[in-house]
Amino acid sequence: MASDRYPFRELEAKWQGTWEARKEFRVAEDPGRPKFYCLEMFPYPSGRIHMGHVRVYAIGDVLARYKRMRGFNVLHPMGWDAFGLPAENAAIENGVHPAIWTHENISYMRNQLKQLGLSYDWDREITTCEPAYYKWEQLIFIRMLERGLAYRRRSRVNWCPSCQTVLANEQVEAGRCWRCDSEVTQKEVDGWFFKITKYADELLEWCERLPGWPERVMTMQRNWIGRSEGAEVDLPVVGRPGLAVRVFTTRPDTGFGLTYAVLAPEHPLVDKLVADGGERAAVERFRAEVARATEIERLATDRPKRGLRLRARVVNPFTGAEVPLFIADYVVMAYGTGAIMAVPGEDQRDWDFAVPHGLPIVETVARPAGFRGQAYTGDGTKINSGFLDGLSVAAAKRKAIEWLEANRLGEGKVNYRLRDWGISRQRYWGAPIPVLYCDRDGMVPEKEENLPVVLPENVQISGKGGSPLADVPSFVNARCPRCGGPAKRETDTMDTFVESSWYFLRYCSPRYEHGMFERAAAEYWMPVDQYIGGIEHAVLHLLYARFYTKVLRDLGLVKVDEPFIGLLSQGMVIKDGAKMSKSKGNVVDPDDLIRTLGADTARLFSLFAAPPEKDLDWNDHGVEGASRFLNRVWRFTLAHVDELRQAVPARADALSDRGRAFRRSVHETIDRVTADIENAFHFNTAISAIMELVNELHAFEAAPAQEPRQERPALMREAVETLLLLLGPFCPHIAEELWSVLGHAESLFRRPWPRADSGALIREEITVVVQVDGKVRSRLTVETGARAEHVTALALADDRVRPWLASRQVARVVVVPGRLVNIVTHAT
RNA sequence: GGGGGAGUGGAGGAAUUGGUUUACUCGCCGCACUCAAAAUGCGGUGCCCGCAAGGGCGUAGGGGUUCGAGUCCCCUCUCCCCUACCA
Question: Nearest nucleotide, C1' to the C-alpha of A254?
């Protein structure tokens, strides 16, 4: 069986070696040529690549090779998102140092990628855990600090009381610690934040200006930013002059229906309002109860809302009435002001809480006739609302805000769901945050000339206790950059999303030593023309990278507003109805596949089985089919190699009928493949067009020759060469090999992409469908451009059509030129 | 609860502005080659009726617009993804 296969192993190794030795894919800025920046999301060096990687990198490689053949100067780089938690977990579990683990993984995976024959400029490879990389991120951190874009505050984190350590979200499994299974609690710690909220509006506006992005990704980003317009309103606390509960509402028009107010349990005001010991104890009990709510409980939206009524009362500023104040679990501190004005008449959540607590419900919008619901959230005429009565909801919102502002009780306000980006990680394997704490000067940034603040290597990682860096005295104990006195270094490291927020800029000048990147290089290459990656990064990575780019722009470092012009979100790789995973036992190992069938087959099937944006259903028989196809191409070419090499071009204007028809197929294939790649990355249909060409090539070769002797080899040579050029981006090794077998000294990838000869595309005759009352009854072969009257006459006279017209009258005839004739009849 | 996407043969998937439904691949069936098998090549393959010629029905279901609907409009069902007490 193996002996029947073409020698993909030797051939793939040979061409990979040749391309590497020739530095075939190395690029430099060239103002004389249009550039194309093709980028796939760089991998985390987890150990081995999986089929998802094969898919995304195959997609990117087709595009990069295609664009090169189209004359673009293509930047197509690769690197490693090398910081991250798994390296630390490996250290904890196997005692391997994260640096060693990471670098071993990188060298294994680099080799795997090279075996796929991907056309990267490997001279630009970057690894984010190297000081030469993260040095620049530290510099930008200091710049952001100076501008108030980086700041420090307390926030809540997941905390394992048994391991005495902070847990990342992915280390919390169903509310329990991934290692010791203890119940995870929340804890307040100091941490660093990037002020992404400052850019909320700009990030949102640009969502409308990125037509090259999938709509669903933009929608997810819009939802994530979550802009909502409303008002903040002060509810004075009864008997406490100067003290008020500030709430955010999107429905200021419903103020007259405000019958109680609610604070988030952890709201800071609660401590000020609760003085009495007994009440304080009740509050603490309630808070503990809410904090215990596990992940699973929180998922159940329909569970009863719990609350505790405080003794303090607040004033409804619209009515002047005193109303009760609660703390309740359905109000979260993370959104708005962490406090709400409750209007049970027009908010279902408030209604759900008000009814069991016996709270009054006031309707402030007239219900439409027949309304049977509970809270009413639709539009209508305002009622029971004093000066707002009679207005529509929208008009009442505007008037209520005017009134609040005139009476200094509140103001119009736009609120965002987007939170500032918490970048502190109490972790070892990340970029150190370049600040120190001095007893005299307080928090001080490291001096720029002292950067990078290098991550020390002599660290014990146990997974217990706080940040591992805190246990490295040589790292922690330092000198204050300002006064020279003793100071302690920050021991938090940065979120790995920071590295991936600018790596695409570093690729422009990866070895540049005087800054993040060389300005001219970035101006030439940026923005990324096509970015390709998984949908799982639809929000976080893609939003952070957009934010970071805007920050760098405002720091005067880059000119672009957005990093990625085009985005392709590829689907998952599925097998047997489920995502490939070790636990499901349905993984296909790329190494095995490359060894048994070759990289070209692996690439071909990944691209053929589904369009890139859809999930790909892996099928071992299908992979065999892809391999069979390449064998077919191989055998055909070798079987005719002498004939093909000796062929002399035929005159295109003097071909036999059969020869002309065959040549037309070849040139139609060029157009189809080009359009499929160009328009929508429909590589699957591009490949099927190439397969059809191969089928036709076989048919042409097998049929008895009727044409002049020279014509046949000439047409076959043109067909095979076209086939190889079209196949090249998909299956570069076999295409390059056969190209050289045909006698070409120069690489196929130095050749321009083929262009269809418009003369070859001309058809003398076309098939026209004849319908009677919308049903296909016959087909006619007519001259291209035949007149409608002529085609109609032929159709009406057609033997297979006439019986359907008997005893009926022709009402009208619809002619679609070059396509069909529809004869519409009615009974006589 | 909110948002987004998808339902086409036995399977993955194709179908220009509404114009031949099911390209290509897999699977299955048949034939050739072979002592045999594999490999390879060629042919067939939506469902139903029919010896055949041919006809009827078919793109989740129901309605509508149209000479003509997988495609456009309305309703219903199913599945997938994201998100979540967002005030």
Answer: B87
